[in-house]
Amino acid sequence: MDRAGVGGVCLAFPGVTVDHPFGGDHDAYKVGGKMFAITGAEGGLSFKVSDIAYEVLTETGRAAPAPYLARAKWVHLADPGGWPDDELADHLQTAHALIAAKLTKKARAELGL
Questions:
Q1: Is there a contact between 14 and 111 (Cβ–Cβ < 8 Å)?
Q2: pLDDT of 62-92, one tens digit each?
Q3: Which CATH number characterizes residue 89's domain?
Q4: Number of domains, the chain
Q5: Among 92, 109, 98, 104, which Cα is nearest to 9's?
Q6: Does residue 16 lie within any of the structural domains?
Q7: What is the value of pTM for the model shown?
Q8: Which residue of 25, 49, 53, 89 shows the fewest CB atoms closer than 10 Å?
Q9: Within 13 Å of residue 25, how many CA atoms lie on the same side as its CB?
Q10: Is residue 35, in this structure, part of any structural domain at all?
Q11: Distance of alpha carbon 3 from alpha carbon 15, whole angstroms
Q12: Structural domain range at position 90
């Protein structure tokens, strides 16, 4: 999946916005103002995962700990094109759900979640 594909998947989730806090060459996908996925200019992708998924993906070498965000259980894919689109879309949906679950009840209601 390329950068445009990631954008198409992420923007289809409810309450998602895209921002460029690190410059125009990075897309940060947010729900309720909180990031759940970031794409970079060189095609890399970082996203939030569960504790178990973090251990499995990093220990098997399928993903690397995300720079600056690994302590919050984010992983980084240098080449997301090497992953099956449906599997990557599932991970992005999970990332969205993990971050959305941390929002207040009021914020989730305002976003239609």
A1: yes
A2: 999 998 899 999 999 999 988 999 999 999 9
A3: 3.90.1150.30
A4: 1
A5: 92
A6: yes
A7: 0.91
A8: 25
A9: 5
A10: yes
A11: 20
A12: 3-102
92, 27 contact by CB (below 8 A): no
Residue type, 62: R
- Give CA–CA dist 64/21, Å, rounded: 22
Structure tokens at 27: 């897309």
DSSP state string for the chain: --HHHHHHHHHTSTTEEEE-TT-TT-EEEEETTEEEEEE-TTS-EEEE--HHHHHHHHHTTSSEEPTTTGGGTEEEES-GGGS-HHHHHHHHHHHHHHHHHTS-HHHHHHHT-
Q: Which residues pair with 34 in a beta bridge?
A: 31
